[in-house]
Amino acid sequence: MKILQKSFYNHPTVQVAKDLLGKNLVREIEGKLLIGKIVETEAYTHDDPASHAYKGERNANKSLFGPVGHAYVYFTYGNHFCFNVVAKVPNVSAGGVLIRALEPIEGIEIMQELRPGKKIKDLTNGPGKLTQAFAITKELNGIDLMQKGPLYLTEGEVIPEENIVATKRIGISRAQDKLWRFCIEENQFVSR
DNA sequence: CACCCGATTATCT
DNA sequence: GATAATCGGGTGT
Questions:
Q1: Which of A54, A91, A158, A175 is found 20 to 30 A from A48 (Cα to Cα)?
Q2: pLDDT in the model for residue A1
Q3: pLDDT of residue A188
Q4: Which of A175, A169, A159, A176 is nearest to A192 (CA)?
């Protein structure tokens, strides 16, 4: 399976959020492989009041302002990490796609070890859940996702536009009118 | 240094 | 459906 390259991420953030549906997230831990298909995403742009990038570059969010195809991992609510992929056109300062849910494909036993007592359906159907199941922490903030390593993304399915559902983003207080949450239609691993 | 808040989840009822 | 848990970063004194 081919690893997604810069030409995939070098587009408007909202477009890449849709394009990422159906692609595979690959995690390598101690020689073992975890794979999940992306089934739910959200877009956050530089001029979007709901984005961490909105108030400008800070040490905590600098990955969002860095090169496309790299990871932005942040910690929130005291307990949870969330994983984003940096994506934007060249003349724009920042932009990221939050990966909200995956369908477990490979390494399900290891995911269950990382999330003890959870059913397969509850392994990766939320942004904080999938980072736990894939052992994604701030250690991986800023890493290059376009080459083989601990974390990268590979080509997968191309989801037709008519099978993509756009809805309001979840858990934000500003810019709630934007329909920038994208899901694969009728996928049982989408959150909520 | 105190205060506030958040791109969430688990665990109740 | 409601709420507690939990903590790093931002903001202001």
A1: A158
A2: 86
A3: 92
A4: A169
The per-residue pLDDT for A51 is 96
Structure tokens at A154: 């590979």
The stretch A118-128 carries a mean pLDDT of 96
By CB atoms closer than 10 A (0-12, 13-18, 19+), residue A21 is buried
A37 neighbors A67 (Cβ within 8 angstroms): no
Question: Which pair of structure tokens corresponds to residue A118?
Answer: 């959870």
**Minimum-distance nucleotide, CA of A95 to C1':** B7
Chain A 65-124 residues whose Cβ is under 7 Å from strand B: 72, 76-80, 82, 84, 96, 98, 115, 118, 122
Whole-angstrom CA distances from A90 to A13, A15, A32, A133, A159 are 11, 14, 35, 33, 25
Cα A5 to its chain centre, rounded Å, is 16
Structure tokens at A129: 């859940």
Maximum CA pair distance of chain A? 46
Residue A6: phi and psi, rounded to 5, are -55, -35
Q: Which residues on neighbouring strands pair with residue A74, listed in sequence order? A: A82
